[in-house]
Design goal:
Immunoglobulin-like, 2 domains, 3 helices, 15% helix
Length: 207
């Protein structure tokens, strides 16, 4: 009888040890790679968002809407979710295929296994549709000896993706910014030009 009890206790100890070993080898999900907080892309290029995770057992990966946690799926030709955690936005035709709920959305990568669930940071996705635009600068009149301010007007739909590279006067002379923020090349007598948030400051001397 004692020998039988010893065998039972030994079996229980082995089972407990094996269970502890298996448990110690398992772990909750951890996100190893996630996209930047903001992802802007052109409709002509598309974009891939990568989300790499680890954990034991291997976590399942889905993408969700940050607003309500709803899991997203494929949208033929516009969005595809791969099992490896990559979210793909293929190139698309500009006005015909742009969809705000797909191309202007906040997403999260979500990883889950029996030990828990983790999320990536919010990823603000914005697709930019390539289209023509024109800049403009209003006429300003200034008395000699005073200053004038001109602003380069950029359409709002491209303002976040466009920067002023140069100003060109009526004679075709270009003024490009130097390292100190001044504009050089073709400096006129008594004229100094500075750049600040698309503004051109002209200082007309009295002589």
């Amino acid at each position: 009888m004692a020998a039988l009890l010893n065998k039972v206790w030994l079996a229980l100890l082995l089972a407990a040890f094996c269970g502890q070993k298996v448990s110690s080898e398992e772990s909750g999900p951890v996100i190893v790679e996630e996209p930047e907080n903001r992802v802007d892309f052109s409709n002509s290029t598309g974009a891939n968002l990568h989300c790499s995770v680890r954990g034991r057992p291997k976590p399942t990966v889905v993408w969700v809407r940050a607003e309500d946690g709803t899991a997203i799926g494929d949208v033929p030709g516009l969005r595809k979710v791969l099992a490896n955690g990559t979210l793909i936005f293929p190139p698309f035709r500009a006005e015909e295929e742009y969809r705000q709920e797909v191309h202007a959305q906040v997403y999260r990568c979500q990883a889950t296994n029996p030990h828990g669930t983790v999320h990536s940071r919010d990823v603000h996705v914005r697709a930019v549709v390539a289209q023509d635009y024109e800049t403009d600068a209003d006429k300003e009149y200034v008395i000699k000896g005073n200053n004038a301010i001109m602003k380069c007007e950029i359409p709002s739909f491209v303002a976040d993706f466009v920067s002023v590279q140069a100003w060109v006067d009526g004679d075709g002379r270009s003024y490009t910014p130097a390292q100190d923020g001044r504009y050089g090349n073709g400096w006129g007598r008594g004229v100094a030009l500075y750049d600040n948030d698309n503004l051109l400051f002209l200082s007309y001397g009295g002589g």
